[in-house]
Amino acid sequence: MLYWRRMLWWMVAGLLLSGSVGAAVPADAPVRGGVARITLDGPIGPAAAEYVDDAMQRALDDGAVAVVLQLDTPGGLSDAMRQIIARILANPVPVLVYVAPGGARAASAGTYILYAAQVAAMAPATHLGAATPVSLGGSTPMPLPKTIDKPAPSSSSKTKPADEPADAESNKVLNDAIAYIRSLAQLRGRNAEWAEQAVRGAATLTAEEAAKQRVIDFVATDTAELLSKADGRRVRVAEREVTLQLKGLAVRDYPPSARSQFLGIITNPTIAYLLLMAGIVGLFLEATHPGVLLPGVAGGICLLIGLYALQLLPVSYAGLALIALGIGLMVAEAVTPTVGALGVGGVIAFVLGSILLMHSGVPGYAVNLGVIAAIAVSAVGLLAWILWLVFESQRSRQSMGESAMLEEFGVMLEPLNAHGDAWASIHGERWRVRSDSVLAVGARVRIVRREGLLLWVEAV
Predict the structure, then answer these.
(1) Count of helix runs (H) and strand runs (E) in the chain
(2) Which residues are bridge partners to 41 per DSSP?
(3) 30-259: what CATH class?
(4) Left (φ > 0), alpha (ψ -120 to 50) or beta: where does 250 sit?
(5) Which among 187, 246, 191 is positioned nearest to 220, based on CA atoms?
(6) What pLDDT digit, counting tens, does each position of 303-344 carry?
(7) Could you give the angle at the alpha carbon of 332 between the alpha carbons of 327 and 338, nearest 5°?
(8) CB-CB contact of 132 with 160 (8 Å)
């Protein structure tokens, strides 16, 4: 009897313990068999590509049966776009790209990502298109094949084709982009002709127009309707055909990891620019005030992080060189004042380099002009302060020169007869002196008055 009573107590304790453990499981714990939602909002860049890759892997580890990639982007970098598309094509579970909420867009690089998905959907009052490579814009194409252009202002699908690029490099970029988006359209059974128009002529479509022209599969007002309309569709995942069974499944959001958030912050062009400036200023302060340590350590860290971010961004090396030249000229002005000649040239080179630092044609990848203006004004103010100090020093030296010399002592370098002239060493300089008395070589004298470059002295 005692044995069974002990067993009963152990059973009750086990039930209580399991209940407490179950109550301690967080509400957002992964539920296997659900749908993962990844929200991609902003320019397509290295941080966005890493976020999508990391979130999809976490969703797979949690047992998600599908991934919803909610998209709102003006475009971005081609390398990052291709990395995202490669992940979508290789993903072992279907990916549904959903342009939402209302007012969102899948412009430029976003159009390619939308075409790559097994299911493409858009919310009402959204649009897509304008996928022309940025290197083809303007009369003089820039050799920047790794970028995608910003969206055109028009939303009409009947856009006239842009002028064909004349040079071979631009033709390569254009034809490569057309072949890439057509291959995605053929893979998913979507409108390849309109896809070519979006690249060649920057054509755009609204959500309803895109559904009518087989660019997307359907229009959905929210994620629940998206899953409901996608339910039962047969899609190709890798090398197999699967039937989607998504209706009523739980949806779990996958926010960016700490690393992705940090990468997103430092790859912001304005932040990367400020890190670069902070690093240079910190190292300059350490060089001019050795032993302080803090400016040098902080400046070195900021400079390395800024350079790491810049190598991920579409940087113009001409702009970077102009910034370096401008900073060098301003430092030279501070060390050896030239009445503003070097300083003014340095400010001009610095401002031009800051404006040219990023390729402004890439959507979302340009340094804020207000930040550049603020730093330029600060540099001008610093230059003006240095010049003021130089002029004040010269003025005070001139005004105090005569009175200060009246207190100086010297030594005769030559014998001096009464009312004659001779040379004397005064404060390490040779001066012509005159006296009312006779002075021998080596005699110590004191200045009593000054007449231009002639000094009157008397024996001490």
Answers:
(1) 14, 16
(2) 72
(3) alpha beta
(4) beta
(5) 246
(6) 899 888 887 777 888 888 888 888 888 878 777 766 667 878
(7) 125
(8) no
Domain ranges of the chain: 30-259, 262-397, 406-459
- What would the two tokens of residue 57 be? 């892997």
Query: How far apart (Å, rounded) are the C-alpha atoms in residues 384 and 376?
Result: 12
With b for 16 or more beta-carbon neighbours within 10 A and e for fewer, the 252-286 pattern comes to: bebebeeebeebbebbbbebbbbbbbbbbbbbbbb
CA 95 to CA 119: how far, in whole Å?
7
Banded model confidence at residue 390, pLDDT cuts 50, 70, 90: low
Q: 10 Å Cβ neighbour count for 302?
A: 20
Across the chain, what does the average pLDDT equal? 80
DSSP 10-57: HHHHHHHHHHHHHHHS-TT---TT-EEEEEEES-BSHHHHHHHHHHHH
Place of tokens 């087989």: 214
Q: Are 201 and 162 in contact (CB under 8 A)?
A: yes
Q: What is the rounded CA–CA span in Å between residue 115 and residue 128?
A: 11
Phi-psi region of 205 (alpha: psi -120 to 50; beta: other; left: phi over 0): beta
> Given phi > 0 = left and psi -120 to 50 = alpha, else beta, which region is 165?
beta
Vertex 134 angle, CA 370 and 315, to 5°: 50
Sequence-distant (6+) residues with CB within 8 A of 264 are 45, 47, 48, 51, 256
Common-topology check for domains 30-259 and 406-459: no
Q: What is the CATH number of domain 406-459?
A: 2.40.50.140
Contact 94, 67 (CB under 8 A): yes
Per-residue pLDDT tens digits for 404-450: 667 688 998 988 887 678 999 887 788 888 888 888 898 999 888 88
Residue 135 is classified by DSSP as G
Does this model's pTM top 0.70?
no
